[in-house]
Design a protein that fits this description.
Layout lengths: L1 E4 L6 H12 L4 H11 L13 E7 L13 E5 L4 H15 L6 E3 L5 E3 H8 L8 H8 L5 H11 L3 H12 L5 H7 L7 H7 L6 E4 L10 E7 L2 E3 L6 H6 L7 E3 L1 H9 L1 H4 L13 E5 L20
Antiparallel strand pairs: 1-2, 2-7, 3-6, 3-10, 4-5, 8-9
Length: 300
Amino acid sequence: LAAKYVTNTPIEPAQNAAKILLADSTKINEAAQCLDAGFDVQNGGIAATKRVVHMELSLPDDFSLQYTPGDSIAILVHNDAAAIDVVLEMLLKKHNIRPDQPVLLNQTDQSTIREVISRDIDICSVVKKRTLYALAQHCADPMEADALQLLSSKTDAGEKLYRTFIEDQVMNVADVLLAFPSCAPPLEALVGILPAIAPRYYSVSSSPLVHPSSVTVAFSVVDYVTKEGCTAEFRQAFPQFSQRRKRGVATRYLETILAPFLVDTNEANYTAPTVRIFPKPTQEFRLPVDPKIPLILIGP
């Protein structure tokens, strides 16, 4: 419905992304890459600074969202497109499973392979030790299997390696598949190993007394560079896993689809994708009953 930057953010990257979406609203990935290029935090681009977006979501006419200031809304998102492509390519090459192939996850829910990888399992969070151990069982190369088992171990060497290689570099399942190419878990193993995608929670910044048919939130766009690899040997062996640019799965997607609103274009020409949300009430964070009580308000 509406969006704006509440930080001193250059508008040119959003303008370029908006042009793409206004021409074809399905080209979200291309628009996201356009934003990435404009906000180049790695190579001294124009915006290695904080970006905060204020977003107003319109609610369907038949949808009643009961909330008060202080509550949160959960936004359900899909995995990052690049990570999805890595997993789909592995399934196709190693198991001859096509992205458009139908699959039945339960008795009633039929999906395609792409839909399962996109929305049903978490392939973008930092990979856990137990996941690394499970992935090690699907390595054709014994040395790669041993390396993943070491990463998953509780030994001093394993703990140090996990911290510097996985945590510091924010490695997810797709990254592991790229770093260990013989690792090829089948679909049923991925579904069994990986958790569901967690909702992203954002504090509501509006009141239903003022906005009965919409809800607003403000969020900081997650966009940063990871630490330098711990040793010269590490950086030489894994140059792609040192000082990596990482973006928030949810905030990158939201900033992208909101680009036409961020630049104040004629939104009548653009229909943004539907965002799936649900409320999360709170009992602790409430405004005082007496409006005379002073408040300290801290922005995002």
